Amino acid sequence: MINRNSNNSQHCWLAIGDETGSWDFETTRDGKRGLVLILARTDAWQGALKETIAGQSVAKRMAQPLQHLPGFSAKSTFHHALDAFKLGPDGLSQELHEELRQNLGWLAGHQQLMTLGFHASHAELYQRLTHSQDATCALAKAYAALVALVLPFLGQQDELLLGFGPRSENLNTVAATRSGLQDALNTNNRAEMDSRRFLSTLRDSLIGNLNRVWPNGGWDKRFQAKVLGEAVRDARVPYAPKSTWDGLADLGASLLYVQQNAQWAELFALGDRPNVHFGPLKEYLR
Q1: Pairing status of strand 276-280 against strand 114-120
Q2: Residues 258, 260: Cα–Cα separation, whole Å
Q3: What residues contact 279, with CB distance under 8 A and at least 6 apart?
Q4: Beta-carbon-side half-sphere exposure of residue 76 (alpha carbons within 13 Å)
Q5: Is residue 115 part of a domain?
Q6: Are the C-beta atoms of residues 21 and 31 closer than 8 Å to each other?
Q7: Are residues 53 and 102 in contact, defined by beta-carbon separation less than 8 angstroms?
Q8: Does residue 103 lie within any of the structural domains?
Q9: What digits encode the pLDDT tens for the residues 77-133?
Q10: Among 147, 108, 139, 144, which Cα is nearest to 259's?
Q11: Global pTM?
Q12: 3-state SS, residue 72
């Protein structure tokens, strides 16, 4: 467990993460995948939730689906831009385009929230991160790679809480079949990821790599990862519903998705993004 520094929000950082694309080993090899973290001190998160976009608080805006989606495409219960991206650049109404532009622009231009992420091909995920053909292991090592870029450069008294969203997978994946385990299915008829394996792989990869460079960093006491809702509670950020945090994490992933696709990048033209840092996976593994 993290040793709280006198409950001082200036020493506690909260990072929330979300991935883009399908990470299942068995899926099509085409398309791009990615992972994004949004991180800030907890006092900065407190202020960000109270800010407004077009007269609406960020906390409320992220907790609901995009308001100008056509009825047939509105499937989510929180801000989930994939519902809009599926319509294609030419399928957005003027109102939906503006709603998305405002949301993306708020995060891209924020001075206290850092957005960090990478993009990769299917081959890069399973050649550079893991040879296990297991998406859970690949995702854990990907989170470790991003956190390793941040943790050594925080203050010596600072601690980082990572909130992640559990992924799910088909039952017929190579990794699931190889284990022989019968996993319980969720409402989408998919198996929930093995959180124990995910967390163990994440900590082993992150702390092992950091110790090789900075052996006396005390990293195990300065880092903790939990399911998003639990991480937010531990960070003692004033209450916002889970859907708000799901929406914020999705907004970060949406920003990466736009950057990866030339048509969307041209459509939104987000301009200067001093606190947004995206790059190819290979640059994060040097």
Answers
A1: parallel
A2: 5
A3: 118, 119
A4: 20
A5: yes
A6: yes
A7: yes
A8: yes
A9: 778 898 899 999 999 999 999 999 999 999 999 999 999 999 999 899 999 999 888
A10: 108
A11: 0.90
A12: helix
Least-confidence region, from 160-174, 193-207, 246-260: 160-174
Most distant pair of Cα atoms in the chain: their distance: 55
The pairing of beta strand 56-57 with beta strand 52-53:
antiparallel
Rounded Cα gap, residues 15 and 34, in angstroms:
16
Range of the domain at 260: 14-134+160-194+223-284
The residue behind tokens 């914020």 is: 248
Instruction: Say which residues have a Cβ less than 8 Å from residue 44's Cβ, sequence separation at least 6.
Output: 112, 113
Which residue's entry shows tokens 């995910």?
198
Is position 146 within any domain?
Answer: no
Cβ neighbours of residue 65 closer than 8 Å, sequence gap 6 or more:
74, 75, 76, 77, 78, 79, 80, 83
In a domain, 142, yes or no: no
Question: Residues 118, 260: contact at Cβ < 8 Å?
Answer: no
Domain count of the chain? 1
| Model confidence at 253: pLDDT above 80 | yes
Looking only at the bridges linking them, the beta strands covering 191-192 and 114-120 are: unpaired
| E strands present in the chain | 12-20, 33-41, 52-53, 56-57, 114-120, 159-164, 168-169, 191-192, 223-227, 276-280
| Angle subtended at Cα 37 by Cα 82 and Cα 9, rounded to the nearest 5 degrees | 130
Say which residues have a Cβ less than 8 Å from residue 205's Cβ, sequence separation at least 6. 140, 141, 144, 145
Q: How confident is the model at residue 180 (pLDDT cuts 50, 70, 90)?
A: low
Instruction: Give the model's pLDDT for residue 83.
Output: 87
How many other CB atoms are there within 10 angstroms of residue 31's CB atom?
12
Distance between start and end Cα atoms, the chain = 29
Beta bridge partners of 33: 120
